[in-house]
Write a structure and sequence with these properties.
Blueprint: H1 13-25, E1 31-33, E2 48-52, E3 57-61, H2 84-95
């Protein structure tokens, strides 16, 4: 469910203050945050923000195309490895030796 248009987009106030302070000074440092729900604002373009994914901070370089999206969209929390049953079946099918077809003489 989306946020009310009357309220406007959500951003953690501390994060916005840090970005605006860096813009005034002209600095480009990595900002660490746990606020995955914060919306990317135009002031953030050009900065690198490290978003927490549950075990580490994933650095994300903010571009113009990301404005309006949430920070959590760019730091996936789950790592897909493979479906074990499908991988075993595929391996079994490729590893099985094929017997040559019987030759029919004519």
């Amino acid at each position: 469910m989306s946020r009310s248009l009357k309220k406007g987009p959500y951003i953690q106030p501390k994060l916005l203050k840090r970005v605006e302070a860096m813009n005034q000074k002209g600095e480009k440092k990595v900002i660490r945050t746990w606020s995955r729900a914060s919306v990317i604002f135009p002031q953030m373009v050009g900065h690198t923000i490290a978003v927490h994914d549950g075990r580490r901070h994933v650095p994300i370089y903010i571009t113009e195309n990301m404005v309006g999206h949430r920070l959590g969209e760019f730091a996936p929390t789950r790592t897909f490895r493979s479906h074990a049953a499908a991988a075993a079946a595929a391996e079994k099918a490729t590893a099985a030796p094929t017997s040559p077809a019987p030759a029919t003489g004519g």
